[in-house]
Amino acid sequence: MQEVIRDIPVRTEGELRLHAMVRAVLSPGIWFVLAAQLLLMFMLQWRVPEDAAPLLSMLAIFLTAMALMLFFYLQAGAFQALSQGREALPVGEVIRAGKAVFAAFVWLLLKAGLLFAVVMNVLVLVALLLTGSNLEALTQTLTTYFGPMTGMLAFVFVYWLPLVFVQREFRLLSGLKAALRIAWTRLSHSVFLALMVLVPALAAGFLPADGPILFNALASLISGILGWIAYIYCVDALRQRQPAATDKISV
């Protein structure tokens, strides 16, 4: 892997946090991705009628898949563009940057999703064997706490995606291991990231599942912008670490 030496000024924790907040709020590209996220959320609320023709059902599935792929493309472009510069992110840069990393990003998400599914199935099986409870009751309990659980995972692996795009290294297990190592070395600076990532996920667990869609959209928008602030903060922290700005992740 070719090492890239960057002339990156060393900033204090306060400067890193302030820069992340200002850059996220002033970036049209981030708000564009958040708008796409809300649009996708509204689309997923729609259900095909049970008596609909098979062709309509297939069309709905195709359009949903295409919308999801488009959202992943925009996400990949924003992740990539934010890992390169320091200025506010324009919409055009999001669209241009996604082309180089989209395929690798989707493949990484597929591997991460498969790993998550395997781990969850193993945990469910172990819980069934140890507690003797039935599968339906355990599934209902997991559904109740699924949001906080994923929020905790996002907090623990908060440096994973920033590391992936700063180093352009899309291997899954080695990237997760490196992200954990970095999070451990920066444990004293984790309060800010907990406020940006963990607290919104825990708060979302108290929101009613059948609440008004506009209220859920507002909550999604707030948690989304906080997540992007956390991403920018992690990117800046990684880029000014020495020698981590040129680290190589090994399997």
TrEMBL record:
Keywords: Membrane, Transmembrane, Transmembrane helix. The chain crosses the membrane at residues 21-44, 56-79, 100-130, 142-166, 187-207, 213-234. Signal peptide: none annotated. This is Transmembrane protein. It comes from Sulfuricaulis limicola. The lineage of its organism: Bacteria, Pseudomonadati, Pseudomonadota, Gammaproteobacteria, Acidiferrobacterales.
